[in-house]
Amino acid sequence: MGGVIQAHTVEQVRAAEAELMARVPAGTLMQRAAYGLAYAVVDFLAGAYGRRVVLLVGSGDNGGDALYAGAVLARRGAYVEAWLLSDSAHKGGVAALRGAGGRVRRTEPTGRRAPTDGSTGSNPRFDVVVDGIVGIGGRPGLREEAAAALDRLAGVPLVAVDTPSGVDVDTGETPEPHAVADVTVTFGTHKVAHLVDPAAGAAGVVQLVDIGLDLPPADVEALQAEDVAALLPRPHPDAQKYTRGVVGVRAGSATYPGAGLLSVSGAACGLAGMVRYVGDQDVHDLVHEQHPEVVGAGRVQAWVVGSGSADGAEGTLREALADDVPLVVDADALAYVDLAHGRPVVLTPHAGELATMLGCERVEVEDRPLHHARTAAERYDAVVLLKGRRSLVAAPDGRVRVNRTGTPWLATAGAGDVLGGVIGALLAGGLTPYDAASAGAWLHGAAATLAAQDGPIVAGDVARALPAVAGTLHTSPPG
Ligand SMILES: NC(=O)C1=CN([C@@H]2O[C@H](COP(=O)(O)OP(=O)(O)OC[C@H]3O[C@@H](n4cnc5c(N)ncnc54)[C@H](OP(=O)(O)O)[C@@H]3O)[C@@H](O)[C@H]2O)[C@@H](O)CC1
Ligand SMILES: [K+]
């Protein structure tokens, strides 16, 4: 898969770094990193000459990167001041910055001149903060002095070196305090904190600088469009509707008819050959009005169960389990998921539902989504799609895919029902639960983004945009 974004652990990065360092002259990697960082700052500021840059510098190589990049910027005419937050700092970096005309101090930089543009922002002296406090060698959280320095510079745009300082690099957790970046410039590969929330939310736009590391496959990754395109089922030239897969929906009830309709509208995205609906007659009539192609009970290759099923959730899950096919289990049916043990299943909880499944508080899931998604996947021996800004798809063996498509407008009632339907269609089309869940989440997010071009959206808009998104992938050449 060409474009997949891999996120490696600190241990993997360290091993690759050691292997490469043994083959190249000392300092090479830091120079590569520093130049990449400097050019990212130039991009961010749309120039270097006359720009005012403050470097926050910790005791390690992360600070070294910042200092060398500062030297590059100073040589290109930027005014650069480094604020050393520790008694020790990278000696070569300090010398390079001084040699290029930058200032280095142990106290808060004041800036060379007062603002002339009349700006009244909280810190008008600098155009950007370069956060070189800690990178992959840091412990989560920040020392008091570092936290105080970030406070003093609050309001100034921030470019983080490798990671926003203070986040937990391998888990994506964010024990306070930590930096919040507009841009994070990272080296060699993405780290888990760049993909997984809440840390990903603190990283801003992530830019990767290639420094030549040779890395093994990662457990955490994010699919890109071409990866999803390669996974989608394509109709064989002599396909007929049954060979393309039939997806069955058992969702919605007299109390929640919309859930049935929206699950069907996701399933009817065109990626399976046929959609069946089994459930309440009134819901069936409603479904039929809007989707005349949907038929009733019969053989299926995958079931979507649970959304809006209310009291009927256990019964519908048992009925679906009578067929030996993969399932998507959502909402009310998640309470009975033990019944599906050993089956190919995708569970699609949001944070609150996952908390109930694991016997913890919702906020614990929100603070540590990667940990809890993995725990649930292992405990239930199922693929778990934890819905959120960056949905996680966890497999029982510890692999995780992070979904990066979507828009805040997707936080709308019924969107989860549509998602379950799409995943069901992909399961019926023959994808594994892991692939179906991750491709489904990607399509769902991309459809929401497409639909939201015209403004706020409702769940039905997402469903209607699905065929167009899938069509774009089918027609674009794999890359
Ligand atoms: N890997 C690669 O390929 C390449 C890596 N490169 C760069 O090296 C970086 C890693 O450098 P690193 O190993 O020196 O560790 P780093 O992150 O600077 O910090 C460690 C020091 O910070 C301190 N400290 C710790 N926790 C803290 C906290 N919470 N709050 C405050 N301070 C804290 C602690 O120091 P202490 O004061 O406790 O002795 C510790 O020793 C990496 O992120 C990348 O930028 C590139 O140059 C080239 C290619
Ligand atoms: K940093």
Summarize the SSE layout with pairings:
Blueprint: E1 5-8, H1 10-21, H2 28-45, E2 52-57, H3 61-75, E3 79-84, H4 91-99, E4 103-105, E5 128-132, H5 144-152, E6 158-161, E7 183-187, E8 190-191, H6 192-195, H7 199-203, E9 205-209, E10 220-222, H8 225-231, E11 246-250, H9 257-267, E12 274-277, H10 281-290, E13 302-305, H11 313-321, E14 327-329, E15 345-347, H12 351-358, H13 362-367, H14 369-380, E16 383-386, E17 392-394, E18 400-402, H15 415-428, H16 433-451, H17 459-475
Parallel strand pairs: 1-8, 2-3, 2-5, 3-4, 5-6, 6-7, 7-9, 10-18, 11-12, 11-13, 13-14, 14-15, 15-16
Antiparallel strand pairs: 1-10, 16-17, 17-18
The protein binds ligand NPW and potassium ion.
Binding site for AMP: 387-391, 416
Protein name: Bifunctional NAD(P)H-hydrate repair enzyme
Domain YjeF C-terminal: 224-473
